[in-house]
Design goal:
Mean pLDDT is about 85; it is low at about 125-130. The strands form 3 sheets. Strands 6-5-4-3-7 form a 5-stranded antiparallel sheet, with helices on one face. The protein has a 4-stranded antiparallel sheet with strand order 9-10-8-11. The chain has 11 helices and 11 strands. It is elongated, with a radius of gyration of 28 Å. The protein is α+β, with helices and mostly antiparallel strands. It is about 40% helix and about 25% strand.
C-alpha cells in the first residue's frame, strides 16, 4: 500500500480496531494499535497515534484513555447502539416468523459486529416461541423495498400471489398475477400484509407479503389514494380479523368484566365500554364481519355474545351450525 493512501486510511483503521476489539474492560494499548496498523502497511509512531485519537475525539467519538500499571490504552465508550438495545433487536429478529432462518442468522451476525468482539457472545440468545414457523420466501426483503419505493413514487405494482402445495413448496396461485395500488404495509398477528387498492374491483384488499413473488414497480400511477387518505388506519386494522375482509358493521358485543383486557387489546383502549349491573359490559365496535371474526368470538367461549344487530347474530348462528354439520364455509382471503 502506498504511504500516502495508507495514511489517508489510518483514522478509519484506528476506529475499526477500537470498535471491534475494545470495551471498558479491554482497552487497546498504543503499541497494539501501532502493530495492527503496521500489519495493514501503515507506519505509525506513538506521537501520531495520540494526535489521531485526539482528532477522532474532536470529531465526536467517545474514546476513553485508561491509565494503569499494565500499560492502559484506549477503548470506544459509546456505540451507535447500547448492548441492551442490540439484545432487544436480536430478540425481535429471532422471534419473527416474517424473517427467514437464513436472514435471521445474517442480521444477528451484523448486530454482533456492532456490539464488538467481547459483547458479541452476549447476543447469542435463545428466544422460544410456541409453534414458530419461519417464512421461506427469501425475496421478501427486496419485495418490501419495492413496495415502499412504489408508495413513495406513487406507482402501481405487479406481483404473483403464491400458495403452499402438498410438497411444501410456494407455487403461483391460479389467477394469481396481480396489478394493484399499494397503500400501506401493516404488521398484524405476526405477519406482514400489504393493504392495496384493487382498481378492477374498486375495493381495498390485503395480501400476505411473504406470499408475494416477483414484485415489480410499474410506471402507472396509483389509484385509491384519496379514499385511503381519509381512513383511520389504526381503527381499520383493529376491526379486521386475520386481515380477512368482510362487510363492515357496527356490532354490539357483551363480555364479562374480567375479559375487559382481552377486548381492549383487540379493539383498542379508545373503544367505548358501557358497564352493566350483572358483572358484564357492552362494547360497540366497527368490525369486518367474517368467519375470522366469528372464530375469534367463538374462541373466547360462551361468555362472549353478539347483542346486535340481529342480522349479524343470525350469521354467527349459521356459521356455528355449519361447523357442527361439517359444512364448508365459503370465505375469502
Amino acid at each position: 500500500m502506498a504511504k500516502s493512501s495508507g495514511q489517508k486510511l489510518k483514522l478509519l483503521y484506528i476506529m475499526k480496531f477500537l470498535a471491534e476489539n475494545t470495551d471498558e474492560d479491554h482497552p487497546m494499548s498504543t503499541s497494539e494499535l501501532i502493530e495492527r496498523l503496521e500489519a495493514q502497511g501503515i507506519h505509525s509512531e506513538r506521537k501520531s497515534i495520540y494526535d489521531d485519537i485526539s482528532k477522532l475525539c474532536d470529531f465526536g467519538y467517545d474514546i476513553i484513555q485508561v491509565h494503569s500499571r499494565q500499560g492502559g490504552g484506549y477503548y470506544l465508550a459509546e456505540r451507535e447502539f447500547e448492548l441492551a438495545e442490540l439484545k432487544l433487536l436480536v430478540d425481535a429478529v429471532q422471534s419473527s416468523r416474517f424473517i427467514t432462518t437464513k436472514k435471521s442468522r445474517e442480521l444477528i451476525g451484523k448486530l454482533e459486529r456492532m456490539a464488538g468482539k467481547y459483547d458479541a457472545g452476549k447476543l447469542q440468545r435463545q428466544v422460544y416461541v410456541a409453534g414458530r414457523v419461519k417464512t421461506e420466501n427469501e425475496s421478501i426483503y427486496y419485495n418490501v423495498d419495492n413496495i415502499h419505493r412504489a408508495i413513495q413514487e406513487n406507482k402501481k405494482i405487479s406481483f404473483t400471489y403464491l400458495d403452499w402445495n402438498l410438497q411444501k413448496e410456494l407455487v403461483p396461485r391460479k389467477n394469481g398475477d396481480k396489478q394493484v395500488s399499494p397503500l400501506a404495509l401493516i404488521w398484524r398477528e405476526e405477519n406482514y400484509y400489504l393493504a392495496a387498492f384493487d382498481g378492477e374491483d374498486k375495493i381495498m384488499k390485503h395480501y400476505r407479503v411473504d406470499k408475494m413473488g416477483n414484485v415489480k414497480v410499474l410506471d402507472a400511477k396509483r389509484e385509491g389514494v384519496r379514499q385511503f387518505a381519509d381512513m383511520d388506519l389504526a381503527s381499520y386494522v383493529n376491526q379486521t380479523f386475520g386481515m380477512f375482509a368482510g362487510q363492515e358493521e357496527s356490532v354490539t358485543l357483551a363480555f364479562p368484566n374480567r375479559l375487559a383486557g382481552v377486548v381492549l387489546d383487540r379493539f383498542g383502549r379508545e373503544s367505548s365500554i358501557r358497564p352493566l349491573e350483572d358483572g358484564q359490559f357492552h362494547i360497540r365496535v366497527r368490525v369486518a364481519v367474517s368467519g375470522q371474526f366469528f372464530g375469534w368470538l367463538a374462541g373466547i367461549g360462551q361468555e362472549a355474545r353478539i347483542v346486535g344487530p340481529e342480522a349479524v347474530k343470525e350469521k354467527y348462528r349459521a356459521w356455528l351450525l355449519a361447523i357442527l354439520n361439517g359444512e364448508p364455509h365459503q370465505g375469502k382471503e
